[in-house]
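Give me C-alpha cells for this 153-residue protein.
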Amino acid sequence: MEPYSKEPVTLIEHVFPGDTNDHDTLFGGKLLSIMDKAGGISCSKFAHREFVTISIDTLKFIAPARQGDLLEVTGKVVYTSTHTACSKVTALAVNKATWEKKKICEGYFFFVAIDSMMRPIPIPQFVVENEEEQIEWNKAEKIRSNMIADKSE
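Here you go.
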C-alpha cells in the first residue's frame, strides 16, 4: 500500500475579534483547533483514510498572533506506524500590512486511522527519502516511544 501524497496541507485563516482575548491576541485554543484540523487533513491526504487525534506533543507557543493577522497553518506527515500517522504542524502569523510572516507555534500531532466502527485500520507507510525527513521521523518516533512508555506506567 503506497501513500497517496506526501505533500503538506496549508490552511489560511483570518484572526477576527471573536478569536482574540482582551490583549487582542489569538486564543491558544483557537490556534490548536486550526492546527489539529491541518494535521488531520494532511494525514487523510497521505493515506486516504479517516483519522482521529490521539495525542499532541512538543507543542511550542513561540509568539502571539494579533487581531487582523492571517494564520498560515501547515501540516505535513513525518512519521507512520501500522495505524498511526504523525503530522508536524507549523503555524505562521502573516501581517497583512507588510505580508511579513513569523512562526508562532509548532507541534507534533498524532492521529489513528479508523473505520466506520471507530476501529483502528492499517495505513500506507511513510518512506524516508532524505536527511531532513529522517530527522523529523526520528523526532516523531521518539515522541511516540515516550507516549507508549508513559501509557504503560
